[in-house]
Specification:
It contains 18 helices and 26 strands. By secondary structure, the protein is an alpha+beta fold. The chain folds into 3 domains: 130 residues, Glutaredoxin; 352 residues, no CATH class; 56 residues. It has a 7-stranded mixed beta sheet with strand order 8-7-9-10-26-25-23. The protein has a 4-stranded mixed beta sheet with strand order 2-1-5-6, with helices on both faces. A 3-stranded antiparallel beta sheet has the order 20-13-24. Helix 2 packs parallel to helix 5. The chain is extended. The protein starts with a helix and ends with a helix.
Length: 702
């Protein structure tokens, strides 16, 4: 039977639509396989790749192979399955951004013993998880490691990788790519003066050089100790030199530093006005610390002043409570100073106010001018206006060194810091000609400056009650001082750069110990030769004189006289611009703080110290590749039912009790509120229907 033309047209139209739909879908699949579009809807772009990763991948000039040693995802436990999803997505993103320069190769070590042996050889570690039932016990082996191979010769292995979210994957993988793609490490010199332990007459311990062994530092920077007993000039290819708490500096050492800066070097000084030993019970005892060596004719503080840096060898105490508080009182009370106290939940560390441990705040302190100028309950308007002009932000610079710290709201924790600022005259910066400078960090305006006291122990000895009484007396004395002294804001870090004049210009350069020994040996040899000559002359006068024929015998040089190596001529003015950075604290990166030896015992421990030091290295090298990555601070999206800062005294026990009460109230509210709303809604429906029924019945004829 022949179909009507209309039916045949409908079939043809449907067929055409299906064919066109398949063509469109094919085009979509084709384009989607080659062009990807991702949308990140999070407020702080947690699921987006930062510019740091893109910059590093753009700089690749060789092929980067990422070997992924992964177990099948469907066999992973639930807690690892989500991390695998994050890793897969991030690796796929690297492949897309790399534009052919990044290749991901996947291997399953559980399927091939050769691959498993390779993992053992290169350092990829398995994750063995135990599973137990009532009748059996088994161990499941899972793999989730990466190896980065760049150019076929440089490699980096991440033994186990399990990022919980996108940003964590980027923080772990991008620095590894940066490491293998870096052709050569930047060389940094240092001179250290290790801390003195209680009971020791001389400095001991590992000292600050432990910093160079940290993985995040050692993989990108090469540290070398240039503290030379003979005081040789620093090599010409050295660009940056760190001084960790300089003390007992000889004139020769000061001259070496002077010539290094005049030749265009960058000098970074971590300065302390005093050295306090940390005893086992947080007993802070002052130990001898002399900045200049005995017999030194020039002072290091005067040398810095000649460069435009004013170092007042005072110890600072910041009375602003914001500057003393740990970042998180509940989980990190030991960040500054805490004491063990008995609570209903057992012994816990409780933070206590100790003004000598504080940090710079990312606050504009000029806004507190009215509060600081209040006298007898009234604001001194003239004084407040002066404070508004005088005081500024605690972190006033926008350099990428401080980007992350401005987001956090504070700088690293400083311990017994000292005043380092710019040279001033009549309140105005007075820098040498050709030199510019700026202050990079400041305390709050509630700072006290004093000569280093012999004891700064707030707790003393005795039981817990005695220690708390001692703490109250210690704090009360500081409060009384604060009430009688003028308000001031202390600079904590300065950066000066330019063409410096030599501190030793117009004077004879200090000689090296080897030169002094050479001169002493020469004088002794000359005196010996003169004595021998006198004795020989006397003997010759008594002996008969034979006929002398021929030239006199040559004199032999004395090989016992040491020869000092020659050195370059002294510079009176800079050959090229140099740079000096002075930070008014070294304790925040000291070995006991970096390793966290005192962390669990109540502090101090600089939670941000290592991060600040690592960022400082990039800042000095002007390496911005990891800038956005290092300054990425995820937003804490947890519900905060209790603001710990609002609890009186900042007592974590009160905060925890308040939190329990509020969560219990909210739990009951979550139960009762929906039930109550349903009951009210049901009652309203019942009343409406009853009213409708009564209206309907009333409308019926009787």
């Amino acid at each position: 039977m022949n179909r009507p033309d209309s039916e045949r047209g409908a079939v043809l139209a449907i067929t055409a639509h299906v064919v066109l739909l398949l063509v469109v879908l094919g085009q979509i699949v084709y384009l989607a396989s080659r062009h990807r579009v991702r949308l990140d809807l999070t407020s702080d772009q947690l699921s987006s790749t930062t510019g740091s990763t893109r910059t590093i991948l753009d700089k690749l000039d060789k092929r980067l192979v990422i070997e992924a040693y992964f177990s099948p995802k469907d066999k992973l436990p639930v807690n690892l399955r989500e991390t695998r999803e994050v890793l897969d997505n991030f690796l796929d993103e690297l492949t897309q951004i790399g534009k052919g320069k990044v290749v991901v190769q996947r291997f399953d070590p559980n399927e091939d013993k050769a691959i498993s042996d390779r993992c053992t050889r290169i350092g990829v570690q398995p994750l063995d998880l135990r599973s137990q039932s009532s009748t059996s016990l088994s161990v499941d082996r899972h793999w989730q490691g990466l190896r980065f191979v760049y150019g076929g010769n440089k490699q980096k292995v991440l033994a186990q990788v399990a990022p919980q979210y996108w940003a964590a994957a980027e923080v772990q993988l991008t620095p590894a790519i940066k490491e293998v793609a870096t052709e050569s490490k930047r060389k940094i010199g240092y001179m250290e003066w290790p801390a003195t332990a209680i009971g020791q007459q001389a400095p001991g311990g590992i000292g600050w050089n432990v910093l160079r062994t940290h993985d995040q530092i050692a993989k990108r920077f090469e540290f070398q100790n240039y503290k030379d007993d003979d005081g040789a000039l620093l090599p010409a290819d050295l660009e940056t030199l760190f001084l960790y708490r300089p003390k007992d500096l000889t004139d020769r050492q000061k001259y070496v530093l002077d010539q290094f800066v005049l030749r265009g070097g960058t000098l970074v000084v971590f300065a302390d006005a005093a050295e306090y030993a940390i005893g086992p019970n947080r007993q802070f005892t002052k130990l001898p610390l002399q900045l200049d060596a005995a017999g030194s004719g020039r002072h290091f503080a005067d040398q810095l002043l000649s460069y435009g840096i004013d170092w007042k060898q005072k110890v600072l105490a910041d009375m602003a409570s914001e500057a003393q508080q740990p970042r998180d009182r509940l989980t990190m009370p030991f960040e500054y100073l805490a004491v063990p106290q008995m609570t209903p939940f057992g012994q816990q560390l409780t933070p206590v106010g100790y003004p000598y441990f504080f940090h710079a705040m990312a606050l504009d302190w000029s806004s507190a001018a009215d509060q600081l100028s209040r006298r007898d309950g009234k604001v001194d308007k003239e004084l407040a206006e002066s404070y508004r002009k005088q005081f500024g932000p605690g972190i006033p610079t926008d350099d990428f060194l401080f980007k992350v710290f401005k987001q956090i709201g504070r700088g690293p924790g400083f311990y017994w810091p000292t005043w380092v600022g710019l040279r001033e005259r009549a309140g105005v910066a007075d820098l040498p000609e050709g030199v510019t400078g700026r202050v990079l960090m400041r305390s709050s305006p509630a700072v006290l400056a004093e000569d280093p006291p012999a004891m700064l122990d707030p707790l003393g000895r005795g039981d817990a009650r005695t220690q708390m009484a001692n703490l109250q007396k210690f704090q009360q004395k500081l409060v009384e001082r604060f009430g009688s002294e003028p308000r001031q804001q202390a600079p904590l870090m300065v950066d000066v750069r330019g063409t410096f004049a030599s501190f030793f210009a117009g004077a004879e350069r200090p000689r090296r110990p080897s030169e002094i020994k050479e001169e002493e040996a020469r004088k002794a040899a000359e005196a010996k030769q003169a004595a021998e000559a006198d004795a020989g002359a006397a003997a010759a006068a008594d002996a008969p004189k034979p006929d002398e024929v021929g030239p006199p015998a040559p004199q032999e040089t004395d090989s016992s006289i040491p020869k000092a190596a020659p050195e370059a001529e002294a510079l009176a003015a800079a050959e090229r611009p140099g740079r000096i950075v002075v930070i008014g604290d070294s304790d925040f990166i000291r070995d006991d703080l970096v390793r966290g030896d005192y962390r669990q015992a109540g502090g101090p421990w600089s939670a941000l110290g290592p991060a600040f030091f690592a960022q400082l290295l990039d800042w000095l090298a002007e390496d911005r590749d990891l800038l956005e990555l290092q300054s990425r601070v995820p937003v804490d999206r947890k519900l905060k039912f209790v603001a710990t800062d609002s609890i009186a005294g900042g007592d974590p026990r009160l905060a925890e009790q308040t939190l329990r009460n509020k969560t219990a109230w909210l739990r009951w509210l979550n139960v009762l509120l929906p039930v109550g709303m349903l009951a009210v809604f049901g009652l309203l429906v019942l009343l409406v229907r009853r009213a409708q029924k009564q209206s309907f019945l009333a409308s019926l004829p009787s």
